[in-house]
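## tool: complex_structure
## caller: assistant
## args:
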Amino acid sequence: MDSLIYTSRRCLGCEFICAIDMTSNQPLPEEYIDGYVIFMGRRFITDKRALIPRLETEELVKYCLKLLREKPDIQTVADIGTGSGIIPISIAEKMERELQVFATDMSQDALSLAQENYKLQTTNYKEGNFLFLQWDLLEPLISHFGKSVPEEMLITANLPYVREKEINSWLVHEPRMAFLGGIQTGFELYERFFDQLLAWKERPKKCHIVIEFWLWQRDIAETMFQKHGFEYSFFADLRSIERFAEVRL
Ligand SMILES: C[S@@+](CC[C@H](N)C(=O)[O-])C[C@H]1O[C@@H](n2cnc3c(N)ncnc32)[C@H](O)[C@@H]1O
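## result:
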């Protein structure tokens, strides 16, 4: 660490506290230097393989835990675009009953990090009850289940939602595919996700989908939910910004 000089405050235009790597003269997020973040009271490894987990996502996890406690019939949870695995691992570890859990991602690098976090954090899961699947959005689940789908399921997703024109200096540290949601609205990947869900003929009879996005996508999301006739509700982060939704179908 001799080649690092820490800045005492956040860099200009950067959401991370950085150190300057004197070898490359580039700022590096503190989380990549420390090699971990604390999320839901647990220590997760974080590195360049995946997005640095954001604290706001704890609100999504808390909402899901409440939902699972109110709905004991839900036995299956799938997290799409799992990154470092913080969402499914936190849910599995905090939940009083054992669930069948799936963590999926397009990126093999992200999945390898999520598997390391699983080994570090997950104390009592049977290997076959926590599966890591690679490929596009819902496709790994659709091919895994075939015709034997669960009756009721919780699907979580914190998919990339940054628009091309919003890419700035603080995002350069993280994998592009972890934050870039599309060119126009940043909601394009979510649109494809819901298209896949609707096209999934054998999908569970009851699906609860809990997603995270950014504030300007709330109205885009609402228009899409209404167009498809979904039942939905929004919930807010700690700054009272409505940037999470539960969709039921
Ligand atoms: C915003 S990050 C979220 C990571 C993690 N869930 C979290 O909350 O910290 C989005 C994740 O989606 C993955 N991803 C991007 N495109 C995908 C796709 N088409 N199918 C599945 N995963 C995808 C990225 O690799 C990345 O790990």
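## assistant note: The longest strand covers residues 4-10. The radius of gyration is 18 Å. Handing back to user.
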